[in-house]
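Quick start: load a record and inspect it. Here is DUF5627 domain-containing protein:
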Amino acid sequence: MKKSFLILAAMAGALFTACENGDMEFPDYKYSAVYFAYQSPIRTITIGEDESVDNSLDNEHKCQIMATVSGVYENKKNVEIGIRIDNTLCDGFMYEGTKGDILPMPVSHYTLSDDKIVIKKGQVLGGVTVNLTDAYFSDPKSAELNYVIPVVMTGVQNADTILQGKAQVADPHRLNKADWEVQPKDYTLYAVKYVSKYDSHYLRRGVDSYSGNKTGTEVRHAAYVEKDETIEGFSTLGLNKVQWARPTKNAAGKNIEANLVLAFDESGNCTVTSASDGVVVGGNGKFVSKGDKNSWGGKDRDVLYLDYTMDYDGIHCATKDTLVVHYRGVKAEWFNPVKK
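Running the structure step on this input writes:
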């Protein structure tokens, strides 16, 4: 019995040593394939700082369209995928929800770094770099969901196939899901929009001094920055212009529309005006990088200082605001294309 135990122990020890000293090898699948993981992603270019992600490419006005290879345990060669732009993919389709047309991005708005995607040896992902031009950022449509870069794979080297799907009609359209038994993944409608560096979620404190139909002074300042009023009403109008749907009430306590436009220069100075009928606004401000010292989380934070007046519904309000950047609020998104 003791001898049998020793034999089993020796066998187990040999097996453990083999696992410890040698790498396990797994067989590849019958074939390797390349594809785009997502057919309708939304890429938001985030200008300025975003501590939740690495957005260094964004601040260079760049992004990357990625492809992947599957079916291999280890990619042992450089895989090259030919690509082309096919603007006709957008014809007759719109965004579900907004009902806006899916527009191919104008050629003046971007360039691609290459006409192929290379997935390097040892990697399973590779990409082509999109360089966004000044014309892109000068176009008001670029700040919202309008433009896509429609990319199609044309061929591949050092992989067996492209996942082109399996059609169940004679003349299928890539975007018509009903045309396919197996959906194609050889294309992507890469939607691109952007947010200004001044478009953030903020923590707000300050002072409002009222006269006219409402009088008095209101001080908004919690004991801790984290407890200050949360502001989510910013949106991008341009690279250096944002709109703020400022919380505003009339003398009866009813909410009214008060959209403020903040236009910045290259030094972070801004003017404050109104975009709402019946609301007159005038003032200025300044965005200061790391200007709010030892702020929330014990760190210096970006801050926007505003000094402005508002006249509405018989009320005159003089305000001094301190808006501390809380977070950018950019998240992963996808859209669903539907036929018009």
